[in-house]
Amino acid sequence: MELLVAIGEAFDAPRMIPVNRAHAASSGQEGDLYFVEILAKGGASCKVTTTTNPIADFDYFQQIMNIAEEHDEASVAWKTKNYYKQIGAVMSQSCIPYLAENIPEYGEHVAFSESSATPYVNSVIGGLTNRESIQTALAAGVLGETPEYGMHLKENRKGTVLVKVEANLNDGYSYSLLGQYVGKKIASGIPVFVGIPKRPRIDQYINLCAMLNVTGAIAMFHIPGVTVEAKTEEEAFAGDKPKDRIVVTNRELEETEKELQTATSPVSVVILGCPHYNLDQMAELATLVKGKKVRDGMTFWVNTSATTKLMADRAGHTQIIQESGAHLVVDTCIDMFCWNNLRDKTGMTDSPKCAYYRRFGPVRVGKMEECVATAME
Amino acid sequence: MAKFTEMSVKCHKLAKGYGEGEALVSKDPICFYLVEPKTGVVREKGHQLEGKSVAGKVLVFPTGKASSAVQMDGLVKLLINKNAPKAMIVTDVEPVLLGSAVLTKIPLVDRLERNPFEAIRSGDFVKVDADKGSVTVTRN
Q1: How far is C-alpha A104 from the chain's CA centre?
Q2: Distant-in-sequence, close-in-space partners of B37: CB < 8 Å, separation ≥ 6
Q3: CA-nearest residue of chain A to B14?
Q4: Burial category of B51 from C-beta neighbours within 10 Å (exposed 0-12, middle 13-18, buried 19 and up)
Q5: Torsion of CA A107, A275, B79, B25, to 10 degrees
Q6: Which of B107, B110, B75 is nearest to B90 (CA)?
Q7: Closest-CA residue of chain B to A129
Q8: Angle in degrees, CA A243, A244, A246, rounded to 5
Q9: Does residue B73 contact residue A29 with C-beta atoms inside 8 Å?
Q10: Among B109, B108, B107, B44, which Cα is nearest to B70's?
Q11: CA-to-CA distance for B117 and A321, rounded, in angstroms?
Q12: For B69-119, what is each residue's pLDDT tens digit?
């Protein structure tokens, strides 16, 4: 409570308002453990549905590696996970909970941390959440309340920066680059995207949302006529003039992509699924890898949520992906001890976020199909 | 002859406490997860503070950035290694940084009477008293 009051006071919030759900972006690292341990030892429990982020699938990684070598980090992650269970959090261990395990309604006040989750909930669904940290989201889940400030108030949800998109956005990867560029360029505020040719697919939204909060701190955006809170550009700015205007062409996206590349030696490990792949991406991947095999000397990892995997199992995607020699992993974040043995290897991913927080050495970033072509034959 | 000046300005408390130290000014937003915990040195490629240490400093920067989870992890790792900043001054607060500052007990202020990027230079000695709402800058 002290934490939320301090936040409320700092932002001049007049009162606390009820929330029905929260998502704590549990990281399984020291900062996360510090707070959840205090709550668990103090006897706290979640008052409203509170889902969790991926940490690591211990059962799986214990079969394929010697976890003891990473004992310090693994034990922090293990303890953290158990404290979340103890306080009654939903062990969804997914970083895309807004698609399945914990879905806010339009107009509902919630407390969602996790980089892709906050803007997805505000912009795509029209739920209302601030850019929470793990700890403020978890406190809201335990108390069932959050201070009324920021994104909970309509006047703070209007656009601030006009982003004119002239670049070709034809896949999920290009939306990652768009998010990365805009996040870095504007740092904060609410971008209003114009010139996006058609309604983005879910994975394209996810990538845009995630990257806006890797290089920046962006709680919401509008795509007039597409996202729920603005039919027109005028409505997105609520009659105000944009404070700033930027233009994004293919050149900006190409330069952004170049900044990411640090690999000079051949790739020997590929990691996909940061944020967790959704069912559409699993289907796309299954189509790409069908009949292919992971090359000798290469490892290939795909991260998804347990819920998505269940559906992928039924659809036959899991079998195709596993037959190619790829590892399909659930409940796990790419920023975890279980990837430490990749530290000296050159990696490849389709996720600039994974590249940014990477556990491997030099990195190449490219589209899903380029990752498959590099790793499989 | 060296000239000594001292200036005091009012500010707004975000996270309580008192901290003092040498100022380190960054025009770029900061993600503490991209700071090396064992040395306090910023390792983010292309960052204005790349290669500089935040340990024991009073940091002046626009705002926090990056994922909701790792800001707190970064600050706690720095605290464990005794390399955390002593206080932080920002111009545009965001909740992830604020929540992390409250829990790690690092004083955090905003709304300085003067633009902190004009009033404070790296190397100045700065005292931040969040509870009293004052920032004192000494230059010699």
Answers
A1: 16
A2: B74, B77, B78, B80, B81, B83
A3: A10
A4: exposed
A5: -80
A6: B110
A7: B95
A8: 160
A9: yes
A10: B44
A11: 53
A12: 789 999 999 999 999 999 999 999 888 999 999 999 999 999 999 999 999
Tokens of A314: 């039924």
Q: What is the pLDDT of residues A1-16, one digit of tens each?
A: 789 999 999 999 999 9
Between residues 88 and 107 of chain B, which touch chain A (CB distance below 8 Å)?
A: 92-96, 98-100, 102-104
Q: Which fold has domain A261-375?
A: Aconitase; domain 3 (3.30.499)
User: Measured between beta carbons, which residues in chain A are less than 8 angstroms from residue B68?
Assistant: 25, 113-115, 118, 131-134, 137, 213
Give percent of chain B above pLDDT 70.
99
Q: Tokens 């560029």 identify what position?
A: A181
Report how far residue A210's alpha carbon sits from residue A205's, in angstroms, rounded to the nearest whole number.
Answer: 9
- For the stretch A46-95, pLDDT in tens is 999 999 999 999 999 999 988 888 889 999 999 999 999 999 999 999 99
* Inter-axis angle of helices A279-289 and A368-375, nearest 10: 40
- pTM given for the model: 0.93
Q: Where are the beta strands (DSSP E) in A138-194?
A: 145-147, 161-165, 191-194
Domain ranges for chain B: 5-139
Alpha-carbon distance A326 to A272, whole Å?
Answer: 10
DSSP state of A240: P
Contact A131 B94 (CB under 8 A): yes
Cα A22 → chain centroid? 15
For domain B5-139, is the CATH number 3.50.30.10? yes
The class level of CATH for A2-154 reads: alpha beta
d(CA B41, CA B45): 12
- Tell me if A217 and B66 make a contact (CB, 8 A cut-off): yes
**A187·B68 Cβ contact <8 A:** no
DSSP-derived 3-state class of residue A168: coil
Q: Using CA atoms, how far apart are residues A115 and B66, in angstroms rounded to an integer? A: 7
CA–CA separation, A42 and A189 (whole Å): 37
Determine the 3-state secondary structure of B130 from DSSP. Answer: coil
Peptide bond into A18 cis (omega under 30): no
List chain A domain ranges.
2-154, 158-258, 261-375
Helices (H), A144-237: 172-186, 202-212, 233-236
Q: Is 0.90 exceeded by the ipTM?
A: no
First to last CA, chain A: 55
* Cα first-last separation, chain B: 10
Q: Can you name the residues that pair with A191 across neighbouring β-strands? A: A161
Residue with tokens 């996040």: A183
Q: Which of B41, B33, B24 is nearest to B76 (CA)?
A: B33
